[in-house]
């Protein structure tokens, strides 16, 4: 055959029957290494949690199609035992490898090849290689080899999980090294450490408090939503300076004991819990379990003689009252209800949301302080009150706090109001909880109907919420009904994920889209100059991306 003549001319000292299977193994290794990087992306977004990656893999049906199809087509020809089909299969896999998307550049939230991510990827590729070689050179019937290779390509995520498990001792050692360095630095420099947690509101409260404290003293805060041990340790190791008087550490709860661990890393001198709500149902299953996790911060703070501020309007009474009763003097409460407050607590009252911002009054120890901010949303009033109470507990004067709040800005993507030409965008992409969603809808109507004589069209763009567990259907039905009363047009993304929301939202004009990009295209085509657009939540790639592999 001409294939043999061609091969003999190029490689006179090699046998095609030996070389081509090895070349095929190398090509398959190249393809599967890139595919492992693709799967690494959702694995990183799931915090390297193997059960959650398995669930994602199953839910998204992120199985290989095209590479397996090429191999299956070659099966009848015994491609590993015939030169022409083998070379065709090699070229096919090279083509599919070239078409594999690079999640470090093409994703909405890109894969970050941290040291940990690289270690997992490289080890998974290393575990994958000997299996490929064995499948390629094994003396098996061609159709058996093809089936085994297809099965192998279909089951790559477990290699990442295995690599993560094998690397756990190294990761534990590295984590301990980094966190020990950070804890040592905090002990040596002694900034006043403020811990913040809550089912919602913690990031916004952190931004507000950072703004207030920075006006009086050098302050360091964890950026964005950084709230994990390694994230906090990195900020401390890289950015904490001797002149920093305050360090604000946002603390996320990913399971029981996680906040307690963060408190060992950054022992809090004072703390706050902004809310205990439904946002963590998928991980915690019940509000009581969420409360136990959040109150780990209070326990660690109280053990050091510090105080904990609670926004009790965001925590069911039966979850905070027994805990406060055990150590009443160590807690400072924030509420709109005067009957639950005591000396030293903060009363939030006279909340007025206007098109130019939020006005409210905060009363502490009999002194009423009017606050005017350019912020939006009644839920922000609670965040402002908690930040005020923390700053007051740290010794700042009410007038200084009020002056700082008058220039405060919303945290990025958290009810941030922007003018884009003549349109108004309410960017609430990162505020993924039922209470925040409701507040954002109120803001949509506030800005849309600011001028009753010239109402503006209100457009809601949303994929719904995530991690609601068993409350998913009920919460989305409620939010869909509410959305229909606040929006003139609803653009629902991934409608199959939120059927109860879609059904309830049909009371107004409704359009559905597979991705946010498609919804944006609709807005570009059908948008009007005076539209008010609310972006309520933005799904990460593991939920929204089309995993057609």
UniProtKB/TrEMBL annotation:
The chain crosses the membrane at residues 120-140. Gene3D superfamilies: Mur ligase, C-terminal domain, Mur-like, catalytic domain. Residues 197-391 form the Mur ligase central domain. Keywords: ATP-binding, Ligase, Membrane, Nucleotide-binding, Transmembrane, Transmembrane helix. It holds the Pfam family Mur_ligase_C. InterPro entries: Mur-like_cat_sf, Mur_ligase_C, Mur_ligase_C_dom_sf, Mur_ligase_cen, MurCDEF_CellWall_CoF430Synth. GO terms for molecular function: acid-amino acid ligase activity; ATP binding. Residues 414-536 form the Mur ligase C-terminal domain. This is UDP-N-acetylmuramoyl-tripeptide--D-alanyl-D-alanine ligase. It comes from Blastochloris viridis (Rhodopseudomonas viridis). It comes from the Bacteria.
């Amino acid at each position: 055959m001409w294939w043999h003549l061609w091969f003999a001319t190029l490689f006179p000292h090699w046998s095609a029957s030996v070389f081509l299977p090895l070349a095929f193994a190398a090509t398959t290794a190249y393809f599967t290494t890139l595919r492992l990087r693709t799967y690494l992306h959702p694995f990183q977004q799931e915090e390297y949690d193997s059960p959650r990656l398995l669930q994602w893999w199953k839910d998204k049906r992120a199985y290989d199609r095209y590479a397996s199809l090429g191999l299956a087509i070659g099966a009848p020809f015994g491609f590993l035992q015939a030169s022409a089909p083998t070379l065709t299969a090699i070229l096919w896999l090279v083509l599919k490898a070239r078409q594999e998307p690079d999640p470090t550049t093409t994703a909405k939230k890109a894969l970050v090849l941290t040291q940990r991510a690289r270690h997992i990827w490289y080890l998974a590729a290393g575990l994958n290689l000997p299996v490929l070689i064995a499948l390629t050179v094994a003396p098996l019937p061609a159709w058996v080899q093809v089936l085994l290779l297809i099965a192998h390509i279909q089951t790559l995520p477990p290699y990442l999980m295995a690599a993560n498990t094998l690397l756990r001792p190294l990761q534990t050692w590295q984590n301990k090294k980094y966190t020990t360095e950070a804890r040592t630095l905090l002990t040596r420099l002694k900034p006043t450490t403020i811990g913040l947690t809550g089912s919602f509101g913690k990031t916004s409260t952190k931004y507000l408090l950072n703004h207030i404290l920075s006006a009086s003293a050098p302050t360091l805060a964890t950026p964005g939503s950084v709230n994990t041990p390694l994230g906090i340790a990195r900020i401390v190791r890289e950015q904490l300076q001797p002149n920093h008087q305050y360090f604000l550490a946002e603390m996320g709860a990913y399971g029981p004991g996680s906040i307690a661990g963060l408190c060992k890393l950054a022992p809090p001198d004072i703390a706050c819990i902004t809310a205990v709500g439904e946002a963590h149902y998928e991980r915690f299953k019940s509000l009581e379990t969420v409360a136990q996790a959040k109150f780990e911060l209070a326990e660690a703070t109280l053990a050091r003689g510090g105080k904990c501020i609670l926004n009790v309007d965001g925590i069911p009474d039966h979850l905070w009252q027994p805990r406060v009763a055990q150590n009443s003097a160590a807690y400072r409460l924030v509420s709109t209800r005067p009957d639950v407050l005591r000396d030293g607590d903060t009363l939030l009252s006279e909340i007025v949301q206007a098109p130019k911002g939020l006005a409210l009054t905060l009363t502490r120890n009999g002194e009423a302080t009017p606050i005017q901010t350019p912020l939006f949303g009644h839920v922000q009033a609670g965040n402002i009150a908690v930040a005020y109470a923390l700053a007051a507990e740290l010794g700042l004067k009410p007038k200084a706090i009020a002056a700082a709040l008058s220039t405060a800005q919303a945290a990025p993507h958290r009810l941030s109001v922007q003018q884009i030409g003549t349109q108004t965008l309410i960017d609430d992409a990162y505020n993924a909880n039922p209470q925040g969603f409701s507040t954002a809808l109120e803001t949509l109507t506030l800005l849309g109907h600011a001028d009753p004589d010239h109402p503006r069209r209100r457009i809601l763009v949303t994929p719904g919420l995530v991690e609601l567990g068993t409350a998913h259907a009920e919460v989305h039905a409620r939010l869909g009904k509410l959305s229909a009363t606040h929006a003139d047009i609803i653009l629902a993304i991934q409608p199959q994920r939120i059927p109860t929301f879609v059904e309830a939202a049909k009371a107004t004009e409704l359009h559905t889209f597979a991705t946010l990009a498609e919804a944006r295209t609709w807005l570009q085509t059908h948008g009007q100059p005076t539209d008010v657009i609310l972006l309520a939540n933005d799904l990460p790639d593991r939920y929204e991306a089309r995993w057609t592999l």
